[in-house]
Each structure stands twice: as structure tokens, then as C-alpha cells.
């Protein structure tokens, strides 16, 4: 592990401990921010120390810089041993359980002596937690629900993490194998992945398997045969399966191992009706193999057009393909811009110019700079004066950078009564507004979102469910009611593509589409690298059967159908 990651882990642990002790929220946020900056740092942190430039890093204050230096010089951070000295080992891990906040955990620990997951589970089931002051059976039930979510979360990994790990894993295979592809839920871009499946074919199968298991990210080999092997990766102890197949069966094997299981079952039934047999080796009529080399060929033999992997969930794609009515789902190349990017004016780590240049390099026509509004103070929310300055800087940078339009967006908080965090006169000066609930997740969220949509300057509703894949349940909300209202008011629903959110996900996208809502994909990037998360949003949109016309950022900026410009589809 590189040193910056080691330090980031320690900073996150300090933040956990401070949270447990109910200390100052800004102090906690400073550790979290520093941890994030360190995780994304690509330089040599030791060199930065030698140059004395650590404290120049955006998001690293003087105090944090000192602690980083302390670690680099001594291998320890005193503050860490201090804050954890009176907390039992493993207790803070429980803070990752949804519905269990630091204050409650503290109470349970103090009153019941709960120190680990097992004890917590017991206390949540029996009288223990329910009997505590201010708790009751409803809260105990919520914690039980949180525990099962937490366990589930541990067994599946968010797609964003998996994609990065799988790309790294597959890269060296491309040298020995003729063909390499992701398969399984990873290729279908499912929001979480149980295990990684990779398919390869080439002249020397043994050499391919050898290259796979000798990869530095492989921790353990759990099963090894001549054509398949299973390993455990360093990343979250994930399992990865590799299968090596004959090139004449590559297409049918890819169909088979891409799944989903439900899709495969339906295909097999269909083949049977036609007097055919389909398996991982090919499509057969009697003893004759009639297809198998490519996926296109396999689908064609069954009377279908090739089906994009993201649709292979048996949600009507087979019927649509048989009738020649598959939708033209959106592609990465359709995306003309990103609507949700934070600059260093709020909690992003890079300046507007850097972000704009990066977006231009990605081939975008526009980038929506979208900082937090003033109520989100912990996230560096902008007061009106600072917002003016930011807008002026956008104008200034726009003069220096051509070939990309820099949009003045804001992610504006929806307040407890549904009003927005800035008056209309401020909102009006922006190119677009994303309205977001960041406080009061259980407080009247449906009503607040709908009220916010009454404001004519609201264009997009941010992360409409509020859930996090790392284990936060999200808002208490009647999503259908919000979607219906959004469709009626022509407010777009966000597909927030950040790895931990994926919000809306495929199922909710389909729901939104049933109501006739429009969508806007935003990465919620806090630095240039996170702009790449657009692919996760595209994956979700494709799984939700969205076409170009359904997604705002497939339009050229002058044609984006925002209601404030009267350009409504
Ligand atoms: P995951 O790993 O839980 O996220 O989901 P998948 O879809 O990647 O499932 P996995 O890894 O168990 O299997 C990969 C693919 O192999 C799966 O999508 C379809 C195929 N497959 C696995 N087992 C069966 C089976 O019993 N019958 C059929 N028809 N296909 C199977
Ligand atoms: Ca899998
Ligand atoms: Ca598998």
C-alpha cells in the first residue's frame, strides 16, 4: 500500500473516532477531506514532503500537513493513538452499519457493553437495545434492518470499485490471450457485483491462466483447473473467475457467462421450441453446430438481433429483440457534457480551469460546474458573495479556454420547508440548478422535493433516493409521487453516477420512465479523475433502457430541453 493510502486510512479512522465521541463536525470533515485528497493523490508524498509542498495541496490544512509529515518521519500519528486509546478494537467498524449513528452506538456501548457485531446483533434482537432510554422496539428493528443491509453490502461490491479492479486484472491478459472480455454481472454493469467473471481465448490456455494467477492483485488461488481458475483479490477480498475457451465457442461462452441466469434460461427455452440446443459451446441442431464463434451469430441463430449486455435481465429484451424492436439505448459517445462537477469553491479539489480542460479532453461540449449552496456548510457551501466571485471566475476562465462551454450550475439545498437555499434573483443568474436534499432525510422529503419543483429555476432533482451503496438507506420518500410530479413539471431526475451513489439506479430509472420523466446524468465529481464515473451513469441508463432523447446531456447545450428556456421535449 502506498503511504498516502496508509495515511488516508488513519485519517478516516480518526474521523470515525471523533464522530463516535460527538466532537466538532468541522474537525471531522477536515479529516475526511484530507483522507479523500490523499487517496486521490498520484505523486510521491515523500517527495512532496521534501519539497515542503504538502500544505499547498488543496484540501490539506496546516494541521493535517503536520500529521502527514509526522507519519512520513515516524511511521505513526500520535493523534490517532490518543483518540482510539479508550475505544475497544473493532467497535468503530460498527459505524458502517446503516441506521446506527455514532451517538446511538455510544449509548449501546456504554449501557450494554456491546463491542462487536455479534453482541450488537444479540442486543438488537432481545430486550437490550429496545429497553434503552429513548430507543424502543422501532429503533431496535431499524438497527436489525441496518445489520442485514451491512452484511449484504459486505458480500457484494459496488460496480465502481469492481470496474477499476477488473481493468487492472485483465490488462496483462491481453498480451497472452487473443480475446479477453468481462462477463457476468460486471459486463452487465449491475450496480453491485458478487464476483468478477472474465472470459478469454487464445492459443496457449495454460499461459493465460499463469498470467492471471501471477497478477500482483491476486492474493490467493482457490481453485485451479485446465480451463478455469478462481482467485481472491486484494481488493475487498473479492473473488474473480477466469475461464479459457476455444475460439470457435467464444461467442456462445460469452453469452452463457454474461448471463443473467434468467436471460439464459429464457434463451434455452426459446432454442428448444425451435428444435435447437444452446449451451456454452454453441448452438446445435441435432449433432451439428450452427453457431458459436460470436455473440451476434448465436443470437441470430435463435432469430434475434444481438442484445446489449446491460439489457440481459429478462425484462422484455428477448421479446423485443425477436420482434426487431430493441431500443437504441444510449452510448458513451452520445454524452456531450457533465452536469454535476464540484470545483474548489466548495468541496472539490481542483479549480475551474483544470476541470474545464479535463472535460474538453474527454470530448465534451460543456461542463456544469456545480458547487454546494450555503446551508451545506460542511461541504464548503457558497454564500451569495462567494457565488458571485465563482461566477465571475467562470466568465474569466471561459475567455481563456475555448472549445468547451463552462456552465454556471449549482447544487442547491432544499430547505426544511421546501424552499431553496438562495432567493430566485440568485438562481436566475445561473445556467441551471440541481436541487438536492442534504439534511433531514426522514423529514417530509416528498413534500419538500415537490415544493422545490414549483420553483421555475429548478431544473434537476439530485440523487433522488439519497441512498449510498456503502450502506445508507436514503430518504424516507414516496419516490413514485416525486417522479410523477417531476414529469408533470418537466424537471429532470438525476442519474448520479458517483460510485457510491448510482442514484437513480436501473430499476428506479425504469419507474421514472413509466411516468415520462427526463433524466440528467451527473458524475458528482470532486476532481478530474472522478469525471470518468460517467461510465457508471451510462451503465445505469442503459440498464434502464434509456435512449438519447430521454437524457438531457445527449443534447447540444443550446438544445438541452430545460424548462427555464422553454425548450421542453
Ligand atoms: P454476481 O456475480 O452475483 O454479481 O452475478 P453473476 O450474474 O455474475 O453470476 P455468477 O458469477 O454466479 O455467474 C456468471 C454467469 O454465469 C451468470 O450471469 C450466468 C452464468 N451462470 C452461472 N450459473 C448458471 C446456471 O446455473 N445456469 C445458467 N443458465 N447460467 C449460469
Ligand atoms: Ca459474477
Ligand atoms: Ca462467477
What would the principal axes of the Cα set say about the shape?
Answer: globular
- The CATH topology of the largest domain corresponds to TIM Barrel
Bound molecules: 2'-deoxyguanosine-5'-triphosphate, calcium ion
Q: What is the total number of structural domains?
A: 5
Q: Helix share of residues?
A: 40-55%
Main sheet: which strands, in order across? 11-12-13-14-15-16-17
Question: Which spans of ≥5 residues are poorly predicted at pLDDT below 50?
Answer: none
Span between N and C termini? Answer: 50 Å
Main beta sheet strand tally, sense and closure = 7 strands, parallel
CATH class of the largest domain: Alpha Beta
Q: For this entry, what is the oligomeric state of its chains? A: single chain
Assigned CATH architecture of the largest domain: Alpha-Beta Barrel
Beta-strand content estimate: 5-15%
Rg, nearest Å: 26 Å
Category by helix and strand content: alpha/beta
- List how many beta strands DSSP finds: 17
| Mean of all residue-level pLDDT scores | 94
**What is the fourth-level CATH superfamily of the largest domain?**
Metal-dependent hydrolases
How does this structure look, described?
β14, α20 (445-454) and β15 (460-461) form a beta-alpha-beta unit. The chain contains 23 helices and 17 strands. It is globular and about 75 Å long. The chain folds into 5 domains: 1-80, DNA polymerase beta, N-terminal domain-like (DNA polymerase, domain 1, Orthogonal Bundle); 88-155, 5' to 3' exonuclease, C-terminal subdomain (DNA polymerase, domain 1, Orthogonal Bundle), CATH 1.10.150.20; 157-244, Beta Polymerase, domain 2; 262-322, 2-Layer Sandwich (Beta Polymerase, domain 3); 332-559, Alpha-Beta Barrel (TIM Barrel). By secondary structure, it is an alpha/beta fold. The strands form 4 sheets. The protein has a 7-stranded parallel beta sheet. The chain has a 5-stranded mixed beta sheet with strand order 2-4-7-6-5, sandwiched between helices. Strands 8-9-10 form a 3-stranded antiparallel beta sheet. The chain has helices spanning 3-20, 25-39, 45-51, 62-74, 78-84, 102-112, 117-125, 136-155, 159-170, 173-176, 184-187, 205-213, 250-258, 261-273, 295-301, 317-322, 352-361, 384-400, 424-427, 445-454, 479-489, 506-514, 534-543; strands at 157-158, 179-183, 192-193, 196-201, 218-224, 228-233, 239-244, 277-279, 282-285, 288-291, 337-341, 366-372, 405-413, 432-436, 460-461, 492-496, 519-522. The protein is 41% helix and 14% strand. The site of one calcium ion has 5 residues, from α11.
Amino acid at each position: 500500500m502506498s503511504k498516502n493510502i496508509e495515511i488516508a486510512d488513519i485519517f478516516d479512522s480518526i474521523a470515525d473516532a471523533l464522530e463516535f465521541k460527538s466532537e466538532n463536525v468541522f474537525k471531522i470533515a477536515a479529516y475526511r477531506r484530507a483522507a479523500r485528497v490523499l487517496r486521490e493523490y498520484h505523486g510521491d508524498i515523500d517527495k512532496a514532503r521534501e519539497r515542503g509542498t504538502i500544505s499547498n495541496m488543496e484540501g490539506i490544512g496546516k494541521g493535517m500537513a503536520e500529521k502527514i509529515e509526522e507519519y512520513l518521519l515516524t511511521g505513526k500519528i500520535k493523534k490517532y493513538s490518543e483518540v482510539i486509546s479508550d475505544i475497544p478494537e473493532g467497535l468503530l467498524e460498527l459505524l458502517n452499519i446503516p441506521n446506527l449513528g455514532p451517538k446511538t452506538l455510544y449509548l449501546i456501548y456504554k449501557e450494554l457493553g456491546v463491542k462487536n457485531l455479534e453482541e450488537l446483533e444479540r442486543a438488537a434482537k432481545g430486550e437490550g437495545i429496545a429497553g434503552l432510554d429513548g430507543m424502543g422496539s422501532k429503533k431496535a428493528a431499524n438497527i436489525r434492518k441496518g445489520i442485514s443491509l451491512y452484511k449484504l453490502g459486505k458480500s457484494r461490491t459496488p460496480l465502481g470499485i469492481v470496474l477499476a479492479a477488473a481493468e487492472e486484472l485483465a490488462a496483462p491478459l491481453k498480451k497472452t490471450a487473443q480475446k479477453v472480455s468481462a462477463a457476468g454481472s460486471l459486463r452487465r454493469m449491475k450496480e453491485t457485483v458478487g464476483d468478477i467473471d472474465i472470459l478469454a481465448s487464445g492459443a496457449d490456455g495454460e499461459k493465460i491462466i499463469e498470467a492471471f494467477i501471477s497478477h500482483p492483485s491476486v492474493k490467493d488461488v482457490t481453485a485451479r483447473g485446465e480451463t478455469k481458475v478462481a482467485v481472491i483479490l486484494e481488493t475487498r477480498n473479492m473473488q474473480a473467475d477466469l475461464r479459457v475457451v476455444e475460439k470457435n465457442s467464444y461467442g456462445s461462452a460469452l453469452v452463457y457467462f454474461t448471463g443473467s441466469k434468467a436471460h439464459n434460461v429464457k434463451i434455452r427455452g426459446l432454442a428448444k421450441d425451435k428444435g435447437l440446443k444452446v449451451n456454452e459451446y454453441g448452438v446445435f441442431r441435432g449433432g451439428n453446430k450452427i453457431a458459436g464463434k460470436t455473440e451476434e451469430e448465436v443470437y441470430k441463430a435463435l432469430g434475434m438481433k444481438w442484445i446489449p449486455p446491460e439489457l440481459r435481465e429478462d425484462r422484455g429484451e428477448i421479446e423485443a429483440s425477436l420482434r426487431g424492436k430493441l431500443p437504441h439505448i444510449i452510448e458513451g459517445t452520445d454524452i456531450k457534457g457533465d452536469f454535476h462537477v464540484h470545483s474548489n469553491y466548495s468541496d472539490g479539489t481542483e479549480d475551474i480551469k483544470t476541470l474545464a480542460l479535463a472535460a474538453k479532453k474527454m470530448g465534451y461540449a460543456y461542463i456544469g460546474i456545480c458547487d454546494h449552496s450555503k446551508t451545506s456548510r460542511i461541504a464548503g457551501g457558497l454564500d451569495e458573495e462567494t457565488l458571485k466571485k465563482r461566477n465571475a471566475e467562470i466568465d474569466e476562465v471561459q475567455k481563456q479556454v475555448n472549445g468547451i462551454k463552462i456552465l454556471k450550475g449549482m447544487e442547491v439545498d432544499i430547505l426544511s420547508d421546501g424552499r431553496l437555499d438562495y432567493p430566485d434573483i440568485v438562481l436566475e443568474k445561473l445556467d441551471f440548478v440541481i436541487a438536492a436534499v442534504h439534511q433531514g432525510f426522514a423529514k417530509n422529503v416528498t413534500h419538500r422535493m415537490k415544493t422545490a419543483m414549483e420553483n421555475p429555476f429548478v431544473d434537476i432533482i439530485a440523487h433522488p433516493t439519497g441512498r449510498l451503496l456503502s450502506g445508507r438507506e436514503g430518504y424516507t420518500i414516496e419516490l413514485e409521487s416525486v417522479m410523477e410530479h417531476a414529469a408533470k413539471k418537466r424537471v429532470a431526475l438525476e442519474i448520479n453516477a458517483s460510485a457510491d451513489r448510482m442514484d437513480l439506479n436501473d430499476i428506479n430509472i425504469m419507474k421514472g420512465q413509466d411516468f415520462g420523466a427526463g433524466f440528467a446524468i451527473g458524475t458528482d465529481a470532486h476532481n478530474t479523475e472522478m469525471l470518468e464515473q460517467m461510465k457508471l451513469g451510462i451503465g445505469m441508463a442503459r440498464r434502464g433502457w434509456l435512449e438519447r432523447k430521454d437524457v438531457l446531456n445527449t443534447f447540444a447545450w443550446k438544445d438541452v430541453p430545460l424548462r427555464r428556456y422553454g425548450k421542453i421535449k
